[in-house]
Amino acid sequence: MIPEAAEKTENVLVSVLIITRNREARLQQCIDSILANSYKNIEIIVLDNGEGASRQEIARYLATVDKRRKIKHIETSPMGFARLRQQAASHAEGEIMMSIDDDCIAAGDAISRIADRFATDDSIGIVGGNIKNFGFQGNSQNKGRGRITANGLYRLIEDPSQADVFGSANMSIRKKAFDEAGGYDPFFEGGLEESDLTLSIRSLGYRVVYDEMVRIDHYHTAVKHRVANRNMDTLRLYLFFKHRLPRGPSAWAAFCRDELGILSNQVKDIRAQYLRRKRAPDEPSPAAKAGPAKNRYLDLFIKALAAGSKLALPRLSIPYLIWKATNATRSRRGKQSRT
User: Fold this and answer.
1) From its phi and psi, is residue 191 left (phi > 0), alpha (psi between -120 and 50) or beta?
2) Environment class of residue 154 by beta-carbon count within 10 Å: exposed (0-12), middle (13-18) or buried (19+)?
3) In 3-state terms, what secondary structure has residue 256?
4) Quick one: angle between helices 249-277 and 293-316, nearest 10?
5) Quick one: which H or E segment has residue 254?
6) Burial letters for 58-86: b for 16+ Cβ neighbours within 10 Å, e otherwise?
7) Does 278 score more than 50 pLDDT?
8) pLDDT, greater one: 235 or 1
9) What confidence tens digit (pLDDT) does each residue in 47-82 have?
10) Which residues pair with 96 in a beta bridge?
């Protein structure tokens, strides 16, 4: 249920959530930019799932920060994205949660702009900001903004004003809406957790808006968070069934048509990857160097089997995913009715 009135005040506490893993130098720059913001009523929650040396370096840095600034350094083991984000959110005391990645730098007025935007409209549940990506190639230059298309397929888009989902690098959430939606679904261990949360919050009647004045710079780094490797098609289909389960023969026919199209494109991508990896005309392949032809055929068979399993298993799991998604939806609605 949407709150009757938003609290229009500059004194609203904003919880800044940062998940980090072995990026201590980048993290320091990120926190420095948060501390330098014009908006001062903040708390910073650093959820650290990194290794020992990195944690020690982060702890040493935080010890140098002004003790009057509220910073929580929470150490945890590596786990899926949704669980990490939920754990960080569980420590938030603010009415607004600002999510920012550890390899980002916030503009000096970013938090003030976020607080002002939420205060202007009590129906806003999520504010997505203006993110500029540096060092990313190809379509990854559009990271942090996308649309959910056929059968839950997530596509990055160039124009952020046309996005319906924003990434954790620059996404702020009204805590009340977050709690009503049930938070992050732990099933999304390797991605799409922001998409699921956005759809859940929007289903409650809250709005998701874009504010170009909430500016974040995002810098590419080689070190990545370690997450469980659940098949992305499994996550996508679960997302689709949870929020857009087909009703009736025509809807199911459209689902099957779209899924065949997605499968066809995936097969084409696998074939293109194989062709790119083929050896140059005058260069013997690694398999040729390794041994007789039967070994090469075995290697090709194993690769084909692995690719086929990656494509087939999510589709074979559709009955389970429908059951799982239906139960998750019922559980969320049950929690809402009790609040």
Assistant:
1) left
2) middle
3) helix
4) 160
5) helix 249-277
6) beebbeeeeeeeebebeeeeebbbbbbbb
7) yes
8) 235
9) 988 888 888 888 889 888 877 788 899 988 888 899
10) 14, 174
